[in-house]
Amino acid sequence: MNNLNNKKILLIICGGIAAYKSLEIIRLLKKNGVTIKTILTKSGAEFVTPLSIASLSQSKVYQDLFSIENEAEMDHISLSRWADLILIAPATANTISKLANGNSDDLASTVALASNKKIFIAPAMNVRMWNHQSTKQNIDKLKTYDYRLIGPEIGDMACGEYGAGKMSEPQEVINKLDSYFKNLKINNKLKAIVTAGPTNEYIDPIRFISNKSSGKQGYEIAKSLSKKGFDTTLISGPTNLKTNEDINLIKVETAEEMFQATLNSLPADVAVFSAAVGDYKLKETSKIKIKKQDKLYLELEKNVDILNYVSKHNFLRPKLVIGFAAETNNLVNYANEKLNEKNCDWIVANDVSNKKIGFDSDFNEVSIFYKNKKTDKLKYKPKSEISDELVDKIINHLN
Ligand SMILES: Cc1cc2nc3c(=O)[nH]c(=O)nc-3n(C[C@H](O)[C@H](O)[C@H](O)COP(=O)(O)O)c2cc1C
Predict the structure, then answer these.
(1) Ligand 1 pocket test: which of 38, 40, 43, 126 has the largest number of ligand atoms within 8 Å of its C-beta?
(2) What is the pTM of this model?
(3) Residue 108 in domain
């Protein structure tokens, strides 16, 4: 089914060899009934001509930030407001860096920075550029700003080298955009945030305090939400788990980073806080490795309480806020206490004293405590099934 029909997409074409693929993207978008406007960077114009783009897209190509004609007709703010979605393809290392750092020295970067729309980027670059630490950091940053990544793929490159950095094929780009609009339609644009995994609170550059958490339950919940059509952002502490590409995965390490990523991802309709966030962090983290000594005294201070903050926020609070409680004893009392103290709607609690369930296991058994004092029990089963049942309850509640 075509979910792109009648959509408005602003395509930004940057200066890379793969710019030729953007012409095919335009052709496919048009075929699917999309109205397109295009921004071509100065370098992009070295690879494809405005004339080809205008002919294929049947609309004007925007190139200059300082253009009297454009400002009168459609200025840089209106361009992003006009679109349902922005696609940057190919996205160069240079433009990615500018977006990650808030630079806006041309029309493309200014529009992206001023945008209130979902931005998809399809990077294309040499394997070493892609694997460079600075590019990796920039991509990680963009993910925390809720940018969506399409590709890149591994393969032969125009420069003769082989590796990751090849832009996704046009049809793959179209499929990703189509599935994004499809998901929006299914659940009426419902957006979900899930936190998962532990956090690391650093003592020095190589030592940290952490919590025992595999992240498996949270990852499964994100998968179930995404499968049922939610636009899902998963904010994950350090884990080795993989997730599917429809989920916007934001990787963080510390509680503070998880907090910032959560704030950046809001607003949302539902937030599931399943991460085992460290309650404490070091008052001061040493910048150099602390040499081994007989005794080491650490001064800890309380970490930010993400669940509490979001649950009590007067306008950022999602319609449904779900907290998790992993307890070794007194489960019912602690879960009810948490429910009330943190002002959340549901608490999903599991007893982690039983080694067969909870931590590291692929199975779980949980109790759900609701604000109205009711409870539900999801009996021992795979975490994926627990997640599916939980998400069905979320959908019922939101509808
Ligand atoms: C022949 C040629 C091919 C290039 N291909 C790429 C590329 O695939 N990816 C990339 O990030 N930069 C590539 N560059 C470098 C960019 O064009 C350059 O960084 C430019 O400043 C990008 O500007 P823009 O991001 O505003 O489009 C290439 C440059 C040349 C001369």
Answers:
(1) 43
(2) 0.62
(3) yes
